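Budget justification aside, the reviewers requested a transparent look at the raw inputs and outputs of the sequence design task funded under Objective 1. We therefore reproduce one unedited record. The lines immediately below are the structure tokens for a 225-residue chain.
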């Protein structure tokens, strides 16, 4: 479990000791986290999020601008903020969720944005962003997808190449089949994953990857003992 304790994001270990999340992030390249107020003030930003932002800024702008949100990330923040403002005008307790695949198609990043409205008003609302490299655990995730969706070995190979951003022709050349065969594989994959587009398939795979990462829960403090 992850908690906000005295202004620091902490994680409770199995030994019931509290550790700064940054120290845990150093041990594994997992998702990057950013928490903002509704007025776009940063409450928390970990090292991994900054690293992925630098990677995305190089893709979008050709340079790694430090501390600057990549355009695609900033756009999601703006969408969530606008939705939170509307929610404040018509109060209701429902989270706002946005999922996007962004960055280099050959090495995409999954962006999950969460807007949490507050009954005390718009200024108390929060925005949480999670960035995760899709290709980081491709073999593990595709093995999970194979079991979950009952994919064939060839369909798994197609998905791995879709994650690289390859075209049908490139996949066909890699697998030694025709483009029509690749199209048929993709059609079957979409049917099994209940999606209608290639992007939809990638989002499903990204969702499985995030499910394999540690679940993140932000609360006002540690659980009561």
């Amino acid at each position: 479990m992850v908690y906000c304790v005295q202004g620091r994001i902490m994680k409770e270990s199995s030994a019931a000791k509290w550790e700064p999340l940054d120290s845990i992030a150093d041990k594994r390249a997992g998702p990057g986290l950013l928490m903002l107020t509704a007025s776009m003030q940063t409450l928390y930003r970990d090292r991994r999020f900054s690293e992925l932002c630098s990677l995305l800024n190089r893709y979008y702008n050709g340079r790694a601008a430090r501390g600057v949100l990549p355009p695609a990330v900033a756009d999601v923040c703006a969408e969530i903020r606008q939705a939170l403002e509307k929610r404040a005008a018509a109060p209701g307790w429902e989270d706002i969720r946005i999922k996007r695949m962004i960055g280099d198609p050959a090495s995409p990043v999954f962006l999950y944005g969460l807007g949490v409205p507050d009954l005390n008003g718009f200024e108390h609302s929060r925005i949480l962003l999670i960035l995760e490299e899709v290709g980081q655990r491709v073999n593990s995730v595709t093995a999970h997808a194979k079991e979950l969706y009952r994919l064939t070995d060839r369909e798994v190979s197609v998905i791995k190449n879709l994650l690289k951003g390859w075209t049908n022709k490139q996949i066909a050349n890699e697998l030694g089949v025709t483009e029509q065969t690749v199209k048929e594989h993709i059609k079957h994959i979409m049917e099994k994953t209940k999606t209608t587009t290639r992007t939809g398939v990638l989002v499903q795979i990204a969702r499985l990857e995030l499910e394999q990462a540690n679940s993140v829960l932000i609360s006002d403090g540690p659980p009561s003992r």
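Helices lie at 21-25, 47-61, 71-89, 138-149, 153-162, 168-175, 179-193, 198-212. The beta strands are 2-5, 8-12, 18-20, 32-37, 42-45, 96-102, 109-116, 126-133. Computational costs for records of this kind are itemized in the attached budget.
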